[in-house]
Structures are given as structure tokens and as C-alpha cells.
Batch of 2 targets.
Target 1
Amino acid sequence: MSVEDSTKDVVRLVDVRKDYGETAALDGVSLGIRAGEAVAVMGPSGCGKSTLLNMIAGLDRPTSGSVVVHGEDVGGLSEKGLALYRRRRIGMVFQFFNLIDDLSALDNVALSAQLTGTPARQARRRALELLDELGIAGRRNAYPARLSGGERQRVAVARALMNRPALLLADEPTGALDSRSGEQVMDLLLDLNQIGQTLLMVTHDERLAQRCAGRIVEMSDGRVAAEHTLERTA
Ligand code: ADP
Ligand code: MG
């Protein structure tokens, strides 16, 4: 790939290594993701998928190698710089939703914009718009305990989109859902990608990956073992 092409990458990892004590969670991963792509990471438990996402999310730093996202060298940021990077550039969705139990759906979504300094009223207005786009505005006043798994994940996706992230990361977003809700969440991610959202997700479900991703990256023992470009089936 030419230098010109690689500057258009939203994500560029070069020879990234992450050691946890004796364990090499990532053992030399190089990967580029272009704006507008949807990429699914697959591979057995423990092969380094979450570590890969966490490096890109700025939740942890590589032992060596470089992680550049949207032109920022994530490994070189200070703690404060990393916190800003996470809030402004990245949206992240987790398997178990990670919503705040004592905030309503609307407030869970609005909070992430308030943390970046958006006034509360404006944050709530945008949160409501997003809940509406994601088809759950009717549940805005419900607390997480009263939401179904699929509804919780849609709230979590809305929260992840609040700050218009350059990159949406999803770590097994359907892993805790029944197959129907899982399909709905994947369809939602697919819709977002089709309107231009760059997406990197981890999933165990080959069928959902094929439906939603344009490329599958297969990992094994901390390395990229294979990559396939797909014709989407959706
Ligand atoms: P996956 O998401 O593919 O299941 P992970 O990225 O979670 O894999 O883990 C990769 C390897 O790194 C595993 O051997 C795991 O035990 C280890 N690991 C991950 N995070 C940590 C951590 N914070 N401390 C120690 N070991 C870790
Ligand atoms: Mg994992």
C-alpha cells in the first residue's frame, strides 16, 4: 500500500506487541482500516481480540509497535490526552453493555456528551435524537434493569455514537443476546456502517460477521492468521 493510501486509514497498527507478564497477548499485529470499512475480528478465546480493541481504544498501551488512529499516535499520548482521545474519537460497545444502573436510558446516553463539556440540555436533545434513530426513544425513561438485552445494547450503541466517533469499536456486542436480538443489533451496526460509520467489531458468530462486515480478520495466538474480503450477504 502506498504512503498516500495509508494516510486515509482511520486505524493503522504496525507490529504491535502487548505483553502481560509472560503472556504475549499481541505478538506483532499490523492492520489498517480505511474510513467507512466494517471489519470483523474472529478467533478463539484468548487469542488477543479484546487486547487489540483495547489498544485501539486507548484503554491500554502497547508494549511496542505503533497504534495510529485518525492521525493520532495513541501510544504517545499522555494520560490526559488518552482520556480526551477516548471520549472524542472512539465509541465503544461491550458484551455486557456497561450501562449505569441508576441512570435512565436517556441519561446514560447524554452523560457521554456532558463529559466532553456539552451543556446538559443540548446533550439530552442529541441523546433523544439518537434513541429515536435507533428505535428506542419510547424507552428513554426506563432504567437498564427494565430494558431487555437488545434494548440495553441499543442504548449502549447510542451512547457510543454521542460524540460522533471516527471509529466505533464493538467487543462481542451480541455475545450476551439471544439470536434474534443479536441479529437486530448486528443489523443496526450494518445500517450505521452503510451511512459511513467506520466499524471494528469482535464476534464469534461467523454468520453475523459475514452479514455485517466487508472484511474478516482471523486471529490466532496474538497474530493475524488470515484476512478475507467479503461480499456482504445482507
Ligand atoms: P480474547 O478477547 O481473544 O479472548 P484477550 O485479548 O482477552 O483474548 O486475551 C489475550 C491473552 O492475554 C489471554 O491469554 C489473556 O489471559 C491475556 N490477558 C488479557 N488481558 C490481560 C490482563 N489485563 N492481564 C493479564 N493477562 C491478560
Ligand atoms: Mg475478548
Target 2
Amino acid sequence: MDRYGDSGVTERLGADEAGVSRAAELLAAGACVAFPTETVYGLGADARSGEAVARIYAAKGRPSFNPLIVHVADTAAARRLVVWSDRAERLAQAFWPGPLTLVLPLAEGHGIASLVTAGLPTLGVRVPAAPVAQRLLRAFGGPVAAPSANPSGRISPTRAAHVLDGLDGRIAAVLDGGPCDVGVESTIVGEDAGGAPVLLRPGGVASEAIEASLATPLTRQAPGPTPTAPGQLTSHYAPREAVRLNATEARGDEVLLGFGPVAGDLSLSPAGDPVEAAARLFDCLHDLDARGRPIAVAPIPDTGLGAALNDRLRRAAAPREG
Ligand code: TXA
Ligand code: MG
């Protein structure tokens, strides 16, 4: 098994039948394989194998207190892993397959390696919509733990080339399904001690849409010093150079990332469309990161996917924790 991930060679797999079945075979052998979802590329491993999951943490250099999201092909598979509820059913019917993760109590006999949940009694589970992810999950036939396929704390990958930038030689393979449609990670919904729904991370499904579906407001969980979720680390998604937000013009050597009326050196969305901006966010950050200059970012309205964009940008701009 040491040959996977330790050999220094990362296989490039096309998203055809041969590529998907090779990726499934590698997962079954306990290797880490990066694959496209509609949000970002995930770094997948068999969620039932602690050893396989450990390779994810090793490849990413990820702090071990961060629990991982488990991906399954359909709601029926999710229901075998977690304690289902009426609220879960409603959200699954509305948003699965798609960019929503539900955090629910682990079910009896779930079989998930404890390293996946970092010892928590709950599990984050989602059914991705991207056809390549669906084909891989069905070919593999089991739950796949997958954080975003980037070194810990760095920008999430929305293309196979981004994955290779950060992890080439550290993972067994990357399945290339082209660019991701949504471009920011899934929205995560859990529940508080009293059973009320909590937004743990804004993401690809607008929180307003979730609130409309539940006919209940979501409580926001404020980022704290002891995160239960890695997206809650204050400095995360960080480019190498400093990031300054709500900028309408560049100062000094800065390169300006525009939005709407602020044109910038490049723009998240010239039309000011937060959906387009989300899809382009990590592409733009990779591009800016490569320029080696400080980054200024135009203001983005905090509604709909704008909330997820601003959340990622605040983390990119936060003082670095090292
Ligand atoms: O879109 C996505 O969600 C991507 C793609 C690959 O599916 N995955 C992703 O995973 O963003 P990751 O590991 O980078 O982020 C997982 C988030 C973290 O903030 C983690 O702490 C939270 O999910 N999470 C997972 N299980 C949890 C749990 N039991 N309780 C609270 N938060 C949990
Ligand atoms: Mg991540």
C-alpha cells in the first residue's frame, strides 16, 4: 500500500470510463484520489479506512482537529450513515444532489473511520451533483471522505491544474473533469444543542434558499478560536501576499480584483453577478497569487452567494496564524 502516495508519481486520469474505473480501483486500494465535484475538487479516500483517510491529512498537511465531509451517491446511502430527521429529508429533497452538506449524528453501525469525524459524534455528509463525482461514487460503491484538494490553509482548487500545483507527487491520482461549476465549497448546516438548525459554513447553496425551504431562520455559528470546522479557522484560503478588502482602487504595488462597477486588473464578475463571481473566485485567487503582489478586492454585496464569497475573502485577508 505504501506505493500509493509515496511513489512521488501522481496519475493524470481523464473523466472517461477507463479513468473513472482506475480512480475507483485506487480508492479501493486505500489511495488518495482528487476528483471534481460541482463545488471544488475533493481529495478523496475510502471513509471506512483510517489508513486511507490518514493519507489525506498527510498529503494536505492538515491539522488533525478538522473533520472531513463524506460523499455518497444518493440519499439512501447517506441515511445508512447518519440519524435521519424530517429536516434532513426536506433539505435533501430540495438540495441533493448539490452543494449542501448536512451535519447529523452518526448512525449505529456506520462504519466510518473515527479519523474522518476527528472524534466528533456527528458526520458531515453530502451527495454531490457533478456527473463525474456521481460516476466515481457509483463505481467505488462506498463512502468517500474528501476535503478540498489543496494543501491545508491554501486556496481551494477548481481545476485539475490547481490540484497538481499543490499536491503533485503527494497523491495517487487526479481525475480531470474540467473546471467546477459552483466554485465555492458546499453550504454546511448542522444543529445546535437544542436541535435548531445552524449555518456552520456559508457556501454554494444560498442560506436564504435553505431558510425558505425550512421556513425557519438559521442561526450563524460565529468563528471561534477552537473550530469544529476547518472553514472556521480565521486565516484560511490564504494567498501568499497580503489581502485588503472593500477596496475601490489599488494602492502602491497592489493588484486589484474587481467586481461589478469596480473593474480592477481582473474581475470576479464585470456584471456584478455573485454566482459568476463564486465560480471564478478561486481561479482569480490562484491567478493573483502567482503575480506575487499584494491583493486588493472590490466590495461585494453580502447577500445570496455574496455571503460565501465574503466569508472566503475575509479568511484570505485575516492575519496569518502560520
Ligand atoms: O464543497 C465541499 O464541501 C468540498 C467538496 C470537496 O465536497 N469539501 C470541503 O471539505 O470543503 P473540507 O474538508 O475542506 O471542509 C469540511 C468542512 C469543514 O469546515 C469541517 O469542519 C466541516 O465541514 N465538518 C465536517 N464534519 C463536521 C462535523 N461533524 N461537525 C462540524 N463541522 C463539520
Ligand atoms: Mg478546504
